C-alpha cells in the first residue's frame, strides 16, 4: 500500500474515531473501570406512566446502539494501532494484503474479504 493512501485512510480513521466518541457521549458515559467501555445513561422524561414507558424504550434502543458503536470504535482503534506498528492492510487471519478497494470502503477492516466472509458478518 502506498503511503499517500495509508495517510488518507489514517485521517479517515481518526475522523471516525472522533465522530463515534462524540456520538456515544450524547447518551452514554465512559466507564471509569473498563477502558474503552461506555455505560448508557437512563433517560429521565418525568414520572408519568407514558414517560416511563418511553424511558425504558429509549434506554433499550440506546443499549443496542451503544454496543454496536463500541465495536466500531474498537475496530477503528485496532486499525490505528495496526498503522502504528506497520501491520495495516494485512489480514489478521491469513496475513494476505487487504485490497485497497476494501480499505477505502471500510478503513477499519481487519480481514480481507475472503476471510471476513468465512468468519461471518461484523457490526
Record keyword descriptors for this entry.
123 residues, mainly alpha, two-stranded antiparallel sheet, 4 helices
Which secondary structure elements does this structure contain, and how are they paired or packed?
Layout: H1 3-25, E1 28-30, E2 38-40, H2 49-85, H3 100-105, H4 113-119
Antiparallel strand pairs: 1-2
Helix pairs in contact: 1-2
Overall description:
The structure is a single chain. The protein has 123 residues and is mainly α. The protein has a domain at 3-88. The protein contains 4 helices and 2 strands; from the N terminus they run αββααα. The chain has helices at 3-25, 49-85, 100-105, 113-119, and strands spanning 28-30, 38-40. It has a two-stranded antiparallel sheet with strand order 1-2. A hairpin with a 7-residue loop joins β1 and β2. The model has no long low-confidence stretch (mean pLDDT 93).
Amino acid at each position: 500500500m502506498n503511503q499517500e493512501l495509508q495517510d488518507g485512510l489514517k485521517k479517515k480513521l481518526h475522523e471516525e474515531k472522533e465522530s463515534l466518541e462524540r456520538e456515544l457521549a450524547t447518551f452514554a458515559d465512559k466507564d471509569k473501570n473498563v477502558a474503552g467501555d461506555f455505560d448508557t445513561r437512563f433517560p429521565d422524561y418525568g414520572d408519568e406512566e407514558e414517560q416511563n414507558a418511553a424511558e425504558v424504550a429509549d434506554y433499550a434502543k440506546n443499549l443496542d446502539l451503544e454496543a454496536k458503536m463500541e465495536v466500531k470504535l474498537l475496530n477503528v482503534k485496532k486499525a490505528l494501532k495496526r498503522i502504528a506498528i506497520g501491520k495495516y492492510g494485512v489480514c489478521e487471519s491469513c496475513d494476505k494484503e487487504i485490497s485497497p478497494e476494501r480499505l477505502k470502503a471500510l478503513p477499519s477492516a481487519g480481514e480481507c474479504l475472503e476471510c471476513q466472509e468465512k468468519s461471518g458478518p461484523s457490526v
